[in-house]
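> example.struct
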């Protein structure tokens, strides 16, 4: 995503590589590589590995490894077992070490990899969480909307009695007002509050209320893959962080207004934190986020239940 944005930033919007380096927080050498290739080239070997002895047997090994994908994990071939089979069944004359190295390389290539993400300024993620609280003397389940700006780790949290469309819309109003701007894009899971249906081509048919919210604030909506929480890992982590740090011990308030005032104060306090792996505070990094945010419209979105009538 960042790779494509850098190329669009330079080739479509006409910015220099030096400007892109400052905006995206990447070295100019990295920017040049991104501009030279339409996709990350990775390491490029000049010619394939030469395996004169093992070469004729790699198709047999590949077939065994492919078949293993359908077998229970505890009954899959080890490299030693593959060596024994191709030696006994196919007269392989080579050594075990060559087989072991080939199996290791093949499994690395086919393994799903996870790499740390670099987040460009101005983008957000949102998700709901749940917790227990004592409200007006009664213990109850509360729902809280979390909005995270992954570049700076700035956060916003607001609680509600239920996870409803009105709460979802109001939380965006309050969150954008807190950040004093609108993220250029927001990433969500496939919540029914925003997605009416997932179509056969993977596209989403959005709810009318969510479409109206987008039209009002002009942000782009993106959705994670079903069952892939790591697609929006920042806000997934924020849900747990807010529950552990803002709601332990169990919060006790007379009203949701009082609880939300407390949560807002905690979000403001966190702006001064310096997270591990960073040399700047959240507030300092937020300045880059803020510069990239869209301006707030003259008035917030009208959160209400609309009913069509025939006049």
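> example.seq
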């Amino acid at each position: 995503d960042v790779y494509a944005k850098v190329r669009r930033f330079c080739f479509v919007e006409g910015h220099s590589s030096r400007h892109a380096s400052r905006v995206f927080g990447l070295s100019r050498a990295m920017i040049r590589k991104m501009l030279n290739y339409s996709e990350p080239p990775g390491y490029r070997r000049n010619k394939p590995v030469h395996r004169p002895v093992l070469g004729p047997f790699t198709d047999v090994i590949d077939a065994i490894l492919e078949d293993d994908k359908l077998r229970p994990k505890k009954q899959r071939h080890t490299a030693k077992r593959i060596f024994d089979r191709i030696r006994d069944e196919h007269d392989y004359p080579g050594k075990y070490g060559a087989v072991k190295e080939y199996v290791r390389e093949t499994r690395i290539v086919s393994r799903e990899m996870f790499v740390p993400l670099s987040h460009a300024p101005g983008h957000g993620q949102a998700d709901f969480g749940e917790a227990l609280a004592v409200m007006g003397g009664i213990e109850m389940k509360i729902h809280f909307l979390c909005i995270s700006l992954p570049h700076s780790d700035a956060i916003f949290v607001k609680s509600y009695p239920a996870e409803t469309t009105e709460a979802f819309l109001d939380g965006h109003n309050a969150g954008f007002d807190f950040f004093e701007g609108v993220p250029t894009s927001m990433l969500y899971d496939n919540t029914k509050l925003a997605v009416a249906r997932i179509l056969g081509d993977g596209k989403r048919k959005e709810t009318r209320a969510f479409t109206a919210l987008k039209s009002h604030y002009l942000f782009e909506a993106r959705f994670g893959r079903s069952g892939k929480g790591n697609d929006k890992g920042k806000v997934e982590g924020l849900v747990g962080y807010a529950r552990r740090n803002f709601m332990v011990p169990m919060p006790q308030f007379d009203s949701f207004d009082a609880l939300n005032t407390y949560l807002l104060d905690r979000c403001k306090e966190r702006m001064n934190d310096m997270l591990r792996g960073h040399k700047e505070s959240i507030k300092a990094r937020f300045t880059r986020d803020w510069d990239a945010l869209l301006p707030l419209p003259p008035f917030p979105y009208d959160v209400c239940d609309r009913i069509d009538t025939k006049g």
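> remarks
Residues 226 and 295 are 31 Å apart (CA to CA).
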